[in-house]
Design brief:
It is a single chain. By secondary structure, the protein is of the alpha+beta class. The protein contains eleven helices and five strands. A five-stranded antiparallel beta sheet has the order 2-1-5-4-3. A hairpin with a 7-residue loop joins strand 4 and strand 5.
Length: 251
């Protein structure tokens, strides 16, 4: 049975940082000492979108993230590809089965070799179902280096339902909390003007509501577009809304 007190703590978290700290500690107690969560809202048939737009959370060593994410290995990773085509949980034992069947590409073998170098060898992946065609989210649960895949699979037989449920709760919580990447941080004023635009207000309306000049409102909108790397204000509102950066109460 899932501890209701723990679930309440997850649901009461007011920041992604607080939520992630609670969750990583809980997963470590099960034996998964390194987690990597990723979510894109801008998936297409040939791309996962710009990595700068991903919601990306991890407690892996920075050297691993530098190679796996910044180095682009994630796009070739077999379990990432599995996550894009499936929903639910999957044991990493499928990698050994594919290797024995000589069913891995050269690129996938390079990713597996990189993972072994960083002791990312046993674990489970969870791919979350989405009703939005351009959205996909998944989490990789890496077991501590002393655990074999057989031990992980035995653990999952005993506790898998609870682990899956907790990760699904955390995923839903992440989608409800504000997330700002270092390159896409908005100021309070920028968030406010985008919020008013999202409510259908004109520049003149916003100037009156905020006690600013129309030129100042336009400046905040221009800087918000630049911060979010978009061309139009409508795109800025959409991207900021996806990341819950607007329409939220300041603490």
């Amino acid at each position: 049975m899932i501890d209701p007190v723990h679930v309440t703590r997850l649901l009461d978290a007011t920041t992604i940082e607080e939520l992630w700290d609670i969750h990583t500690r809980a997963m470590e107690a099960y034996g998964f000492d390194r987690l990597l969560y990723g979510c894109t809202q801008f998936r297409t048939a040939n791309s996962l979108g710009n990595p700068d737009d991903f919601i990306m959370l991890s407690n892996h060593d920075p050297a691993y993230i530098e190679g796996f994410i910044d180095g682009g290995l994630y796009f070739k990773a077999p379990m990432v590809r599995w996550s894009l085509a499936n929903d639910g949980a999957c044991s990493w034992s499928v990698l050994e089965a594919r290797a024995q069947a000589d069913d891995l590409s050269d690129a996938e073998r390079l990713v597996i070799a990189f993972n072994r170098k960083h002791q990312v060898t046993a674990g489970y992946s969870i791919s979350f179902r989405s009703l939005r065609p351009r959205m996909k989210a998944a989490i990789a649960l890496t077991a501590r280096p002393t655990m074999s895949q057989a031990e992980v699979d035995a653990l999952w037989q005993r506790e898998g339902d609870k682990i899956l449920a907790l990760n699904m709760i955390v995923h839903r919580c992440i989608l409800s909390l504000p997330y700002e990447s270092p390159r896409h941080m908005l100021t309070a004023r920028q968030r406010e003007v985008l919020g008013w635009v999202g409510d259908g207000k004109t520049v003149q309306d916003i100037a009156l509501l905020m006690g600013l000049t129309p030129a100042t409102v336009e400046k905040h909108l221009r800087l918000a577009r630049k911060a979010l790397s978009v061309e139009t204000t409508a795109q800025a509102v959409l991207k900021a809304a996806f990341k819950n950066q607007i329409f939220v109460l300041d603490k």
